[in-house]
Amino acid sequence: MDKTEFKQCFSRRLAEKFAMGVADASPNELYQTLGSLLTSTYSQKWQQTWTDYREAEQKQAYYFSIEFLPGKMLKSNLLNMGWLEMVTEGLAELGIDLEDLAEVEPDMALGNGGLGRLASCFMDSIASMGLPGNGNGIRYEYGLFKQHFVDNYQVELPDKWLHKGNLWEIRKESKAVDVHLGGEVYLVPDAAGNLSPDYQGGMTLRAVPYDTGMVGYQNDIVNTMRLWSVEIPPEEEENYRSIEDRRTVEDLTSVLYPDDSSEDGRKLRLSQEYFFVSAGVQSILRYYKQLNKPIDKINQSVAIHINDTHPAMCVAEFMRLLVDEENLSWERAWNLTQEVMSYTNHTIMAEALEKWSINMMKSVCPRIYQIIEEIDRRFVAEMTGVHDFDLIQRTRIIQDNQVHMAHLAIIGSHSTNGVAKLHSDLLKSVVLHDFYLLYPARFNNKTNGIAMRRWTQLANPALSKVLDETIGNSWRKQPTNLRLLLNYTEDDHVLAALADAKLANKKRLAAYIQEHCGIEVSPQAIFDVQIKRLHAYKRQLLNLLHIIKLYLDLKENPDLPIEPRVFIFGAKAAPSYHYAKSIIKVINETASLINQDPTINNKLKVVFLENYNVSLAERIIPAADVSEQISLASKEASGTSNMKLMLNGAVTIATLDGANVEIRDAVGEENIAIFGLTESEVYQYYENKNYSALSIYDENATIRKVLATLTDGTIPNISAEGYEIFDSLIKYNDEFFVLRDFEDYCLAQESVNKAYQDKRRWRQISLRNIASAGRFSADDTVQRYADDIWQIEPVFAHEDLRGAEHDSYLL
Ligand code: 26W
């Protein structure tokens, strides 16, 4: 479709929807118009894709995730439809800046961090690889809280993202299902003497799906992300007279739990988990049964993926439907369940591995608890005599009145994978070693990837243009072709072009920082970036202590030969995570102190950007020079911001943790600044129980000087928080070995400073990082899931079924 046609259609659609012309329309009306033009255009392909999967009787994968973090979708859909350039120009000719429309769209922030964003990167890649995969999650009324700083403290405000409606979703009333919660279940013998469940009490809720198209990259494929919302079944209305009664129901899908590392253990969270699991599994079986295939062949048509433990009840819900409703034998049902289910672990933090009390489980989903009990009983029986008693007791699902959700997911599926080589090895050797002994063949690694199109073509058009002009545009479809850039390491013209693109992005971010924080930063300075959730193991504190050291050094010697540096933080803390919120306060107070100190001639600036989310990441990452990946080795499962920053030419300072190890392998020792304890050294300390923060403190004057600022008033307004942090290090022995890695970290930072001073060398290192980032494409990651775990393949394989030539996106 050409520009002229688009402009006509756009003006016509605006008139149809809002009875007005371009001149009178607000950015939101223009956004709504453009969005509706897109949805009505790709809906035909969406339907076609669905029909193709059905006619081809294609095996499909269903990615169950309690979090999805798409961010904004307008520009991503325009790019994937091949319309981005044409629409940008067409709108400009109508006097409209596409950026203004993109600004209007609220971020879809239905996730906390890494896990949710990965799920959305995967949705984009699965569709772009033409793979029959669907998302299944919750349509929260309120997304992740909006973060504001008041007096340098984090405050949380509700994210009412739906108040202007959501033009990307379609409410599928006809596809609603009922989910039963609470009550009691009695097993009563039926006529044939088989025990069948008799549900007493509890409540039946209506799960209504809202489908959002997942548009593939210029391949006519549109997959589905189905998000469930709860409603009171019309036939039950009279039972919910009062607002309170109604809220008890509607609360179920009203808000995303803002914790991303420690389970909250609340009944509502467990109810959320069962709600979207039951709704999703029921709708899958309903679809499968329409194919008129034997139920005991469902494993050839369905793959269900459990994204961390939150959807682990898929195992028991699938069993419930196969045994209770499809009357399959337990054994047959169990084999099918294991073949259909697969599980990904995203964290080794003990507090993040969900364990629900038996009573809680019984009160929320009694039949599911009965089934889990039976799975556990049969597991013990099957393993007894084969493996030793203690191993069985450590791996069984129900222990000390708690249901271990990871155990259920591992025992009930055919595949358990980690998200980076080191993480997957730690699962086998430490965290899930007992299960590795039971099921060695099930364990595998799938190193994370990122949606290359969003994190280059959309977020960084300046870099994308230089790449096209240097190596051609094949990298847009095949990111590993970025390696061609290595041929230009000695090409000063290309090095300069890359540096100009980076500088332009830094100027844009500097303007944003000026506007939103009132802080002036120099685009010439090193933009040193740490963007991720605030968590002690991610060690934003280590970054802060180094900044304080630099500040003290500059106070002593303002002519210290360091390159001016801007430290940029983006991080939300879970509202109940007090320690994390104290670190935010201290970073902000340190920032105010340093940014207003005239004596250090602007050599240091600290900027903590509010409300870090996907859209802010798209603004920060292209402007980054240094990528902070400084978690304590063994704690960060993978990380994905590390991949995004590398792809955009930032140089990484990192511990050998998570995917940092594979980034080092990709770019080479001399193009990354590695420091700190390795995971085996960390485990050595655990082994020997001999880590002493106090002795490090006593032996290191610099550390004492730096830590003193936390309590001696150097940093104002942090009396409580300063002591809290000081005590966490000295009194409570520094759980994440911040003091142990401090000196090495400072040395690594000096090497970064030195490298930056050699402009040409720095540009070459940056180039090599861009060139080596192609291997972290989520397109390749999902292809590995498809080949090794889900056994699904692109529908293209059945080209003949789709008829001759496809017409691309015609209006
Ligand atoms: C029960 C509360 C809760 C909520 C979310 C516990 C754990 C989570 C997530 C699993 C935490 C998470 O986002 N993990 C991150 O997953 C990314 C994608 O694989 C990894 O890159 C990060 O290293 C990992 O921390």
TrEMBL record:
Co-factor(s): pyridoxal 5'-phosphate
CDD domains (UniProt xref): GT35_Glycogen_Phosphorylase
UniProt xrefs under PROSITE patterns: PHOSPHORYLASE
Keyword Glycosyltransferase recorded: yes
Matching Pfam families: Phosphorylase (PF00343)
UniProt key word Thylakoid: no
Domain of life, source organism: Bacteria
Reactions that this protein is recorded to catalyse: [(1->4)-alpha-D-glucosyl](n) + phosphate = [(1->4)-alpha-D-glucosyl](n-1) + alpha-D-glucose 1-phosphate
Keywords from the named record: Carbohydrate metabolism, Glycosyltransferase, Pyridoxal phosphate, Transferase
E.C. designation(s): 2.4.1.1
NCBIfam families: P_ylase
Annotated protein name in UniProt: Alpha-1,4 glucan phosphorylase
Biological source species: Enterococcus xiangfangensis
